[in-house]
Amino acid sequence: MGAGVADPLVGAGKTALALVVVIALILIVCAALKRFSPQRPRGGGALKVVASQPVGQRERVVLVEVDDTWLVLGVGAGRVEKLHSLPARRDPQDAPSTPGSFARVLAHARGHKGGQDG
Fold first, then answer.
1. Do residue 14 and residue 52 come from a single domain?
2. 3-class DSSP state for residue 66?
3. Which one, 21, 59, 72, 77, has the greatest CB density within 10 A?
4. 47-54 and 69-76: which strand pairing?
């Protein structure tokens, strides 16, 4: 009778060992893929979104810094269009952090003195 009880335990042990081997193989393959896959740059690149302002349901005006230039881009309907470019400002007070200051920068880019159209 002892041999009949041992058979299920042996079968369960083999199944558990097979499961451990499969999990170990999955972990090894994942680690190899992370190590040898091409790395994408994370942050710190040459492109930085300074500000963004919606102007419609699907349209936005985006201020992007590239090197020492700010690009004013119109983004919408699967298109990106350059609207204007101007020298980047290093003074934190000039950086558009609120919608009102973004409006001032946009107005300056369009050639107006104030932040309001009119």
1. no
2. strand
3. 72
4. unpaired
- Tell me, yes or no, whether 5 and 51 share the same domain: no
Secondary structure (3-state) at 11? helix
Strands 79-87 and 69-76: antiparallel
Domain membership of residue 76 (yes or no) is yes
Could you give the 3-state DSSP secondary structure of residue 41?
coil
Give me the domain span that covers residue 26: 1-39
Please give the distance of CA 40 from its chain centroid, rounded to a whole number. 11
Query: Are the CB atoms for 105 and 51 separated by under 8 Å?
Result: yes
Report helix, strand or coil for 26. helix
Total-model pTM = 0.44
Interval 29-59: pLDDT, tens: 999 888 887 766 555 567 888 888 888 888 8
